[in-house]
Amino acid sequence: MENIALIESFSEFKDDKLIDRVTLMAILEEVFRNALKKKYGEDDNFDIIVNPDKGDLEIWRNRIVVADGEVEDPNQEISLSEARKIEPDFEVGEDVSEEVKLVDLGRRAILALRQNLISKIHEHDNTNIFKHFKELEGEIYTAEVHHIRHRAIILLDDEGNEIVLPKDRQIPSDFFRKGDNVRGIIESVELKGNKPTIILSRTAPVFLEKLFEQEIPEVFDGLITIKNVVRVPGEKAKVAVDTYDDRIDPVGACVGMKGSRIHSIVRELGNENIDVINFTANDQLYITRALSPAKITSIKIDEENNTAEVMLKPEEVSKAIGRGGHNIRLAGQLTGFEIDVFREGVEEDVELKEFSDEIEDWVIEEFARVGLDTAKSVLEQDLEDLLRLTDLEEVTIREVVQVLREEFEE
């Protein structure tokens, strides 16, 4: 009776977890063999017959009959008188098979058996979940908000699998409530202990790439290739596209009439400003396109050091740099060049590093980071623009501006 009860309790897990019959039998046998080892010291002389479909299980212990008083290993040997209680015609040297009932293992062993069974099934389930999501790394996945924590949002998919969306993988403008559906990319899957940890990301560049595949048929079909994607999540992105078919305009196909095709992607990413540009192997042309909407006057490229000096008219500089320096920084990441901006027709300008005696190096570096590396490039900007572009305090900017003005007034 105990055998049937245990199998019935196992069937609950089988139905819930959809474990196949072969796996079911292997888990059951492993669990029972572990119990037999604890009870008898070894299990190689036991036969375990599992029939989960019928809900029964049999355990048989095989021993050799020895003469009374000569039993050295009671697990492997049985005395003649004990053997004849099972079958009266047994003789010395013969094999005896005797069924072992669960009750013979003891109450503690039966409780441990069930606990071990539950543990093995969860372990098997977690392994399958890990393998399933490992194959989905880099793919878009949708799950529902289950719990909102300070540093992460916990999501559940339709199968009840837990997925984590960390704070730093959320777009800054993201705001979700319990029950909302969230789309992101399966960024990583790791086993911590025996439990899989599934990380979702909405900030990874590959998420934007996969959204293009979902929303734009030519990208999905392979007619248009995405060569590179760079992002400042929620702010700005640049996507370089190419095609082998001269009849297709890759940029036009991705953007659509009046932005109709890219609109749903922009909305998904919290109104992220997406620049789609034609990829080219011509570095000068590629940099020119990457700095759009600014119009470039000329470019001087140093291939060896991967640097580019870009000349622009003064009114184009702010366009090239972009809000918060995003445009020039993303253009550099997209093309692989460190881009320096220079103003056309500006005479008697002085590089900021010449003021290192009066302005601290880290302040000069912060201005250079957003493309403001000369005195006049800083003075041409309004105070509000300088505050927006840099991470500097107002008092620091005012001090710098004062130093630069004094230079040109002398």
UniProtKB/TrEMBL annotation:
It is found in: Cytoplasm. GO terms for molecular function: DNA-binding transcription factor activity; RNA binding. Keywords: Cytoplasm, RNA-binding, Transcription, Transcription antitermination, Transcription regulation, Transcription termination. Its main location: cytoplasm. SMART domains: KH (SM00322). It holds the Pfam family NusA_N. This is Transcription termination/antitermination protein NusA. It comes from Salegentibacter echinorum. The lineage of its organism: Bacteria, Pseudomonadati, Bacteroidota, Flavobacteriia, Flavobacteriales. The gene is nusA.
